[in-house]
Design a protein that fits this description.
The complex is a heterotrimer of chains A (about 100), B (about 500) and C (about 500).
Chain A: H1 6-15, H2 22-39, H3 42-45, E1 63-64, H4 74-78, E2 84-85, E3 88-92
Chain B: H1 9-15, E1 16-27, E2 64-65, H2 66-78, E3 82-83, E4 90-93, E5 103-106, E6 113-121, E7 127-139, E8 143-147, E9 159-163, E10 170-176, H3 186-204, E11 216-226, E12 241-246, H4 249-268, E13 276-281, E14 286-292, E15 302-303, H5 314-322, H6 328-339, H7 343-351, H8 355-363, H9 368-386, H10 396-407, H11 413-424, H12 430-437, H13 445-458, H14 460-467, H15 474-484, H16 491-503
Parallel strand pairs in B: 12-13
Antiparallel strand pairs in B: 1-10, 1-11, 3-6, 4-5, 4-15, 6-7, 7-10, 8-9, 11-12, 13-14
Helix pairs in contact in B: 1-4, 3-4, 8-9, 8-10, 10-11, 11-12, 13-15, 13-16, 15-16
Chain C: H1 2-6, H2 9-18, H3 23-41, E1 44-47, H4 51-63, E2 75-79, H5 106-113, E3 117-122, H6 156-163, E4 169-174, H7 180-186, E5 189-192, E6 212-217, H8 220-230, H9 248-256, E7 265-269, H10 279-294, E8 298-302, H11 310-325, H12 346-357, H13 360-373, H14 379-402, E9 405-409, H15 425-430, H16 436-441, E10 445-452, E11 459-465, H17 471-489
Parallel strand pairs in C: 2-3, 2-4, 7-8, 7-9
Antiparallel strand pairs in C: 1-3, 4-6, 5-6, 5-10, 9-11, 10-11
Classes of the chains: A mainly alpha (about 100), B alpha+beta (about 500), C alpha/beta (about 500).
Chain lengths: ~100, ~500, ~500
């Protein structure tokens, strides 16, 4: 068993910025535990002598010349913004009152 | 913000050994951003230098700026580093509203440059070698403005506004190894180290390196370890703090000194240091606690799947190595000789962090002596009073122009200082200030002669004395004339004319 | 004009070129079909209001004597994972409801330049996470063969759209089978090209190292025609290949003429056949393999010992990359914003938005991916999965030393019923066992219909895989299989699909 705890899932949810409900935390804990049990088998064959592959087709040195290209207009930039002011994106205060 | 207890600096050094480490972020002055062709430009209107990549829009993908890679390799080489035959980008995952994708593309276990060292010249001329662990490429974040609340700071703000113009600006982060043995000179070493990095990137031409604009930013790690008696093993390293927001050479020095005194006071009273980020406040000269380091700092690094490894050829590395400018120490020796400064004069320049300013002022046409006089004199004095960097006050071009006006006799030294004040106040170039304030020396002999004749007529006794050959008596007339001309006359010329008119 | 919608894209293109059918007629016929049947099928999330204008312009250009691309005037359905400037792009998620992209995905731009007419955005599992479209935030798409069954996923909308004659061509994206498995269950053709052959710029990323955009059609030739439009180097995508590709349409034509089967070495993957496969899926597959042998192909059984680890590796790599790719949905620059009760800090707003904006499968995979990457687990999970990826590539390399192509059933079962696997994520994940290895190795794969399973009368597909960059081989072999079977049956498979409520 991989033994994933609810505390762990709550911590992961915090890292992933998702305000899971207690019910979701509880059901996800069970599901994750099962999923992790079955996917942990990758460790059986992942021996130290096997190199990791992060790109399916090996390429390197893909660059762009340092030449200025198109930018978005301010209308395009802000067209999907939930809130904006002063041509900037507006967000709630970053720190809570207790901080 | 409660005031921290501070221990006397010398006492702190008696009890503890300061251990240092620096992370310096250098913004590269490429034309475009690290992963997008949006312009890398300072001071544009908010959110106008952005592309879909800078905003992290759905479907956007990063592509590496080749020039930024070349700059990073050059910088690595200038830091004496090895250049990795293969290096990779990685994602550093954390949520923050100035980070468009909520991950930063950086480098993690495979940086482009590693294991180097930098020779740093201390104020007394001693050379200290600072070990470099790595230099890696990454992207800058956007800029937050905190609105509401009284201070414009993050605390107490009602809301924040985000401008992504800076998002994606190429950065190289230079990380030192742990630095031991700085002892009481730790603050000076910190300042000298950052000044050296600034000199290196400036001479490479890869960064504007203006600290006040954030082109060069230093995070300083400091810990203290208790001294042990001779023969005993050294104490383990203490808990460190990371001081951020140190935006001038002067602050680097002050912040280190402050943290040493603050940590010493805590340790000596039996307290423990919390591993945390601390923010330097230029105005109060203090640091305040930021976010504590915790398991929330699980950045979940993994290789950036949208980008491919960077594998510079040996030819490219050697090409860039051959093009490196001379190292700062050698450059200093050469400049000192070129400029003809004495040891003391040159040390003054170095300690003031003014090498770049003087080089540029000389390049703009001033004599080395005039450039030194202005930068280490009046400009540094004003900078000190205002608590800012000298370079932030006035441009080298304006200093050269000012020196030029003195050389041609348009300004006296005294007038030039008034003109400088106007330039610093933002009134324009020296010539514009001269014109607007009407500060030029009166060089019209007619006007001077009229004033002299008036003065001589009103002081017949003085006139008589001069005619008797008591030339020193002329002083009284000269004073009256200068007063009449509101100081805008060349005293030597006035003297000449007084003697001439007295005999006529 | 009922004929128009039943034409292949190739035939429609010929009629457009000759002027017998106008682009406006072609577009209107498909818009009418959507109007008639999409209430039942729900393949589309948005229908273009510009399509007829675009079609009119194509007709004008053709009338003016301009030389247009071979597919000019043919309607195209676009999976909602691809961003478009003229229709919202939601990737099947509430968090992106109404999102308007300021730029077109490269494949959409190339399609427009080729004169294709985007007529709508197709439904999909939210952020392409799923094998049934049941995870779409906008409700599932129904399989035109049986409206109580899933159309596959994540690209069920694109597959159902072409199967229901709502569009002759569609674009899909395939991260672990999202083009090929829907093709299998809807009796259509789907191709996942070699990784990097088609630009990912403008495809809302699920797992960057696995995602690939490709064609969804009713015939192999149509897929080749669309493939030729979209497979080009794109400087906006660092992983885009610079290869100059042979025409896939030409490859399909040569395959349909029966060229290339004699002497072809066909590998049957021992680990992806037999046990665990529905009887009717297996029997249709075996018959097709026998047919290939009859035509002079040499069938060889090959072993891929590490394929049994593929699903596990995939469900580590995908969630890990997805957890990072989906972090951008934070309510700051675009998308939904949910204010927690009584206000809150920006952090709380982000968390509340993501809680409300993401569906259960997306949350499950984000949490799983966050876990796989977190400190202390990276080496055991993500690191190990990347090693398995190497082992799977090696299995393919070994196999392709012996054979020219590999074949498997495209999926273990025919279309299952709604809700059947919804409560058991792992069972849903295992449905991708046949398609995942190609994504892990970056190789191309095609699914071609090979008949109906006797027990349920639902479509079955064969998957053909080739080495990296050998996409043309898929079209040759796929078109050959298609031609042989249609010759045998005397009709196309899709013609056997039940008539929908349409006129």
């Amino acid at each position: 068993m991989s033994e994933i705890s609810e505390e762990q899932v709550a911590h992961l949810a915090n890292l992933a910025r998702i305000a899971l409900t207690p019910e979701e935390i509880s059901s996800l804990t069970t599901e994750l535990d099962q999923i992790v049990d079955s996917i942990a088998k990758v460790q059986e064959v992942a021996t130290p002598d096997v190199p990791a592959t992060s790109h399916p087709v090996p390429l390197s040195n893909v660059f762009r010349p340092d030449v200025v290209g198109n930018t978005l207009t301010i209308e395009q930039t802000l067209q999907n913004a939930p809130e904006h002011a002063d041509n900037r994106f507006k967000v709630s205060a970053i720190l809570g009152e207790e901080q | 913000m409660a005031k921290d207890a501070l221990m006397d600096y010398d006492k702190a050094l008696e009890l503890f050994e300061p251990v240092l480490g620096f992370e310096v972020h250098v913004e590269l002055n490429t034309k475009t951003k690290m992963f997008s062709s949006a312009p890398n430009e300072f001071g544009s209107a908010a959110n106008t230098n952005v592309s879909p990549v800078c905003l992290g829009l759905p479907g956007a993908l990063p592509v590496v700026n080749e020039q930024a890679v070349r700059y990073a390799i050059s910088l690595g080489l200038a830091l004496g580093c090895s250049i990795a035959p293969s290096s990779r980008f990685a994602r550093k995952n954390y949520f923050y509203p100035d980070l468009a994708k909520n991950y930063q593309i950086s480098q993690y276990d495979e940086p482009i440059a590693f294991e180097g060292s930098v020779d740093v010249e201390m104020p007394d001329g001693r050379i200290v070698t600072v070990p470099i662990e790595r230099a890696h490429m990454e992207e800058d974040a956007g800029k937050l403005t905190h609105v509401g609340g009284s201070t414009g700071r993050i605390q107490g703000a009602e809301y924040s506004l985000v401008d992504y113009n800076r998002a994606g600006v190429p950065l190289v982060e230079i990380v030192t190894d742990i630095i031991y043995g700085a002892e009481a000179d730790a603050p000076e070493l910190a300042k000298a180290y950052v000044a050296t990095i600034r000199d290196i990137v400036t001479s490479l031409g890869i960064s504007d390196a203006k600290m006040e604009r954030g082109n060069l930013r230093c995070d300083a790690n400091i810990s203290l370890r208790p001294r042990t008696a001779a023969g005993e093993p050294p104490a383990p390293l203490g808990t460190r703090t990371e001081t951020k927001n140190v935006n001038s050479l002067r602050s680097v020095e002050r912040a280190i000194r402050y943290e040493i005194q603050r940590q010493a006071a805590i340790l000596a009273s039996g307290g423990t240091i919390i591993q945390e980020t601390r923010h330097w406040h230029e105005d109060t000269g203090r640091t305040s606690a930021g976010r504590p380091k915790s398991d929330a700092d699980d950045y979940r690094y993994f290789p950036e799947p949208d980008l491919l490894p960077v594998e510079p050829s040996v030819e490219l590395i050697e090409e860039l190595r051959a093009a490196l400018p001379e190292p700062p120490a050698a450059r200093r020796r050469r400049l000192k000789a070129d400029w003809g400064f004495t040891d003391l004069e040159f040390q003054d320049v170095v300690n003031g962090g003014l090498l770049v300013e003087i080089t540029e002022t000389v390049a703009a046409g001033a004599t080395p002596a005039a450039a030194r006089k202005w930068w280490t004199g009046e400009i540094s004095r004003v900078a000190n009073v205002q608590g800012v960097e000298a370079s932030a006050l006035v441009s080298p071009e304006n200093v050269a122009a000012l020196a030029g006006l003195v050389d041609t006799g348009t300004l006296t030294d005294k007038l030039a200082r008034q003109v400088l004040e106007g330039v610093i106040a933002g009134e324009g170039t020296p010539q514009e200030v001269v014109d607007a304030r009407g500060l030029a020396v009166v060089s019209d002999d007619g006007a001077l002669i009229a004033a002299i004749d008036d003065a001589l007529a009103s002081q017949p006794d003085v006139l008589a004395k001069i005619r008797d050959g008591k030339v020193q008596a002329a002083g009284a007339v000269i004073g009256a004339v200068m007063k009449a001309m509101k100081g805008q006359a060349d005293a030597a010329r006035v003297r000449e004319l007084v003697l001439e008119r007295a005999q006529s | 004009m009922n004929d128009i919608i039943r034409m292949t894209a190739a035939d429609l293109a010929t009629h457009l070129q000759s002027g017998e059918i106008s682009a406006v007629d072609a577009t209107q016929a498909h818009l009418d079909r959507i109007e008639a049947v999409d209430t039942d099928v729900h393949a589309f999330l948005a229908v273009s209001s510009d399509a007829l204008d675009t079609a009119r312009r194509i007709d004008e250009r053709r009338a003016a004597g301009e030389k247009l691309g071979p597919l000019a005037g043919v309607p195209l359905a676009v999976k909602d994972v691809l961003v478009t400037t003229d229709m919202p792009s939601t990737s099947g998620s509430k968090i992106l409801e109404g999102y308007m992209s300021p730029f077109d995905a490269t494949v959409v731009r190339l399609s427009r330049e080729a004169g294709l007419i985007p007529i709508g955005k197709t439904n999909m599992d939210e952020f392409a996470m799923g094998s049934s479209t049941e995870h779409s935030a906008y409700g599932p798409t129904r399989n035109p063969w049986d409206l109580d069954r899933i159309p596959g996923g994540s690209g069920g909308g694109s597959a159902a759209a072409v199967a229901a004659f709502e569009a002759p061509l569609a674009l899909g994206s395939d991260t672990g089978g999202s083009i090929r498995q829907p093709a299998h269950v809807t009796g259509t053709v789907g191709v996942k090209p070699t990784y990097g052959a088609v630009s990912r710029y403008g495809a809302i990323a699920l797992a960057s190292s696995l995602d690939q955009v490709g064609p969804v059609t009713r015939t192999v030739l149509d897929a080749g025609l669309l493939h030729d439009v979209i497979a080009h180097h794109d400087p906006h995508d660092s992983t885009s290949l610079k290869d100059v590709w042979p025409s896939m349409a030409d490859a399909a034509r040569s395959g349909a003429r029966g060229e290339g089967l004699a002497g072809l070495k066909v590998g049957v993957v021992r680990e992806l056949t037999g046990n665990g496969f529905q009887a009717g899926v297996q029997s249709r597959f075996d018959e097709t393999v026998a047919l290939l042998t009859q035509q002079g192909a040499e069938v060889i059984e090959v072993s891929a010992p590490h394929f049994e680890y593929a699903v596990a590796a995939y469900y580590l790599i995908l969630p890990a990359e997805a957890s990072s790719n989906l972090a951008k949905f934070d309510s700051v620059r675009f998308g939904m914003r949910v204010q927690p009760e009584g206000g809150g800090t920006v952090e709380q707003v982000m968390a509340a938005t993501r809680e409300a904006g993401f569906g259960p499968e997306v949350k499950r995979r984000i949490i799983l991916g966050t876990y796989a990457l977190s400190a202390g687990y990276y080496d055991a999970y993500y690191g190990s999965a990347q090693k398995v990826r190497t082992l799977i590539q090696r299995d393919f390399n070994t196999a392709f030393e012996k054979v020219d192509v590999l074949v498997t059933p495209s999926a273990p079962t025919t279309a299952f019923k709604f809700g059947e696997k919804l409560e058991d994520p792992m069972a849903m994940y295992l449905n991708d066992i046949t398609t995942i290895p190609a994504n892990l190795a970056g190789i191309p794969g095609i699914s071609v219909p090979i008949g109906l399973a006797p027990e349920d009368g639902l479509p079955v597909g064969i998957q053909v895989m080739a080495p990296q960059r050998e996409d043309a081989r898929l079209y040759r072999v796929g078109a050959a299989i298609e031609a042989l079977l249609e010759q045998q049956w005397g009709h196309t498979l899709i013609s056997q699909a039940p008539a929908l409520g349409g006129k």
